[in-house]
Amino acid sequence: MLMNLFMLILGVLIINITHLISAIGNWRESLINKYSRKSFFAAYSLASSLALLLIIFGFYQRDFITIYEPPIWGIKFNKSIMFLSFWWLTSQFFNGYIKQVTKAPALAAIAIWSFGHLCANGDLHSLIMFGGFLLYALTGLYFKWQKPTPKTTYHYKHDIYALVTGFIAYIVIGLAHLYFTGIIVF
């Protein structure tokens, strides 16, 4: 049990640190200049992949240790905000107005996803994983909000593309959720 917990904590730390380094422009650029762009992204990809494996094994091979009792409305609330999370996640890849408002829709989506799952789950491993991702997303959003918004042209139709793509992702992940977590969403 302790090894699974250690793997989960290490995975969350590695993925958060690598992604925050990428989000903080000064650190990222100095590392790219020092080691080369190719080396930076190779190390970034390797660290992220390792972290993902640690999170998967650490989370799914766990003993269920209750830390808090989730609120009675937690599961329904989580299900109701997941569509928003997927919509904003896909908005990262389009130049819609959501991107202009949030500056980092993928980070906002991770914050929504994490918060929703913390409302629905009260076990130790969920608290570490979703709490870690929530902390990462809020920290990343803070750094993004410190930077000026890039000048680009935003289009409402891109928000519609993101809405449709997000809806499809929501349905696919919702249906597949049972197979990779054992929890029925729909």
Describe this protein with a few key phrases.
186 residues; mainly alpha; globular
Beta fraction: under 5%
Number of helices: 8
Distance between the termini: 31 Å
Q: What overall form do the CA principal axes indicate?
A: globular
The largest β sheet comes out as:
none
Query: Helical content, roughly?
Result: over 70%
How would you briefly describe this protein structure?
The chain has helices at residues 2-23, 25-35, 37-60, 74-91, 97-102, 105-120, 124-146, 156-181. With 186 residues, the protein is an all-alpha fold.
Describe the structure.
- The chain is mainly alpha-helical.
- The chain folds into two domains: 1-63; 67-186.
- It has eight helices and no strands.
- Helix 1 (2-23) runs antiparallel to helix 3.
- It is globular, with a radius of gyration of 18 Å.
- It starts with a helix and ends in a 5-residue tail after the last helix.
- The model has no long low-confidence stretch (mean pLDDT 92).
What's the SSE blueprint?
Blueprint: H1 2-23, H2 25-35, H3 37-60, H4 74-91, H5 97-102, H6 105-120, H7 124-146, H8 156-181
